[in-house]
Amino acid sequence: MQQNDKQQKHRSVQFWCCPKVTAQTCSEEDENIIQSVVQGKTPSYSLESKLGDCFRAAAIRREALQRITGKSLEGLPLEHFDYDYILGQCCEMPVGYVQIPVGIAGPLLLDDKEYSVPMATTEGFLVASTNRGCKAIYASGGATSVVLRDAMTRAPVVRLGTAKRAAELKFALDVS
């Protein structure tokens, strides 16, 4: 499928997804999928794999959500975002996106290398505070990192006085 065809296809999906347009403007196939999601017969998380079109999955999920909640998502943009790019990466079951300002903190001296730290946030003073932390770390000679394992976990947090003490606790727990 050529890029123009894909953009046109996405544009047509946007029209029926817009709350100002009635459900009669979507295709019969898409309406059936929306109804299936609303009725709980099709899990919303399965739309990308079922349809093979991440934008269409987001648009259908969005319409189903609006019908389920009775709330409009009109102010949340849907178009002009690459939903294929985030598949399996950073956001599950998307229904739109928001623009977030990005500030830069640093330099952060970590493992004898300088890093600039981009931060996407709407929290006031967060970047400035992080920048002050980077400055303090730099002034103290930098920080050293240790990777114990490269993975994602969901577990309680234990705060210890030093990284060495944390590593000792980790090794002690591994033995248990």
From TrEMBL:
The record, for InterPro entries, names: HMG_CoA_Rdtase, HMG_CoA_Rdtase_cat_sf, HMG_CoA_Rdtase_N, HMG_CoA_Rdtase_sub-bd_dom_sf
| One of the protein's GO biological processes | coenzyme A metabolic process
One of the entry's Gene Ontology molecular-function terms is: hydroxymethylglutaryl-CoA reductase (NADPH) activity
User: What Gene3D superfamilies is this protein classified in?
Assistant: 3-hydroxy-3-methylglutaryl-coenzyme A Reductase, Chain A, domain 2, HMGR, N-terminal domain
Annotated Gene Ontology cellular components are: endoplasmic reticulum membrane; peroxisomal membrane
Name recorded for this polypeptide: Reductase
Could you tell me which species this protein originates from? Lithospermum erythrorhizon
